[in-house]
Task: structure prediction
Amino acid sequence: MAINKESNIYTIIFAIIMVIVVGGLLAFLSLALKPAQVANMQNEKKQNIIQATGFMEKDKVIRDEAGDLFEEIVTRRMTIDFEGNVVFDSKGELAEGTEEIDSKNEKDAFNVEPRNQYRTPDKDKLYPIFVCEKEGEKVYVVSCSGKGLWDDVWGYVGLAEDGNSVVAAKFDHKGETAGLGSVINEAKFQDQFNADQGKQLAGPNGGFKGIEVIKPGSRPLDQNSVDGLSGATFTGAGVKDMLMVYLEVYYNYFNKG
Amino acid sequence: MSDKAKEPLFSAKNKKLITDPLNDTNPVTIQVLGICSALAVTVQMKGAFVMSVAVIAVLIIGNVLVSMMRNIIPPRIRIIVQLVVVAALVIIVDQVLKAYVYDASKTLSVFVGLIITNCIIMGRLEAFALGNKPWPSALDGLGNGLGYGIILMIVAFFKELFGSGTVFGFPAFEKIGLYGIGYENNGMMLLPPSSLVLVAIIIWVQKSRNPKLIES
Result:
């Protein structure tokens, strides 16, 4: 049977069949793989939160085990707003019955996507707090986000029970220059926030001072500064800004009493 | 079946399909295709390796699919058909990576999507797969993918070594004590422009060793 491949009818029918077949295939694939992809992303978030507690070494927290660890360590999830009012609490007066994560409640601390927060107006910003406990030690994990050189940077910071001493931090980025700005999610940068470094949110004379990312070697480090990365000035500035803006809200909340 | 004697799977002609793109018709250095990703994903050897594997896979499967459809593709929309085949394959690769090899998908992030725009793929579909049987097309895809991958790995090796002092993440310069005598990593090597210089040097070396390639 001879088919005229140049004819309009043939071309159009071919195009229609192709689109239906390919579209159907991709739609099926997307539906079939969705649960695995969502699980990956949620586990990564749980992994990052646990890494920011400083309870164990960062590379000992395996993503696939993060779900169980999260259940075990995170005892309470809270969300506060810009002014420090509690808008969600998995325990206490505001608790809405179950302690399970409700994926539809956008105020649930776990559902707050830290990465997007810096783009929302102040009055709509949500500040999640994860109360983590292990062997009697209590750590508040808080989140922050901002703009690096190319795209979003965000992270989780662990604060000790005094709401002032930094015990660990876990940062991540979307598209910082590989090998330069991208180092913020590696030990070289993050280890400066570990408990043994003694970083604090309050200044030496009290009051919020935050944590500054300074040019390496430009001046001696103190309890309110960490070394930035050479070659990544703008990424460092982005991290500094987000730490200043976000940690102040948390500091005021923890120290308002 | 054709009346001709069946050609062996790895005849001299078929072998040339794999070996030629490694040198004489290398897609990156000779045809100057796929330069964009050679500049962007070569900061670390790990990323370059996963990218090479992904491109080889897409190239082979795309070549075979287009070759199988070569007799029914309407000539007037053949470029669109090729684009749909490549785009669908890339989306499948991206989705599967996200679901099962999450770490690799994070390393490559947007570059997986950019495989679609890799000129080597469309170039091979148009120039080879549309006019050849599936088996030679698969070999052609493999050869060109390897030719691309080799250049990518060479560039990534030098960029990672001089930019971060590591090879596949192994701190080579630290181990031989180069920093002790005052060596510092070259930040320029981590940025895309250094790839241009490296690719140019590779072309120079290649052409000086292979007089066939010199245009008169």
Observations:
- Chain B has a mean pLDDT of 84.
- Chain B touches chain A through 29 residues (CB under 8 Å).
- The CA atoms of residues 30 and 121 of chain B lie 15 Å apart.
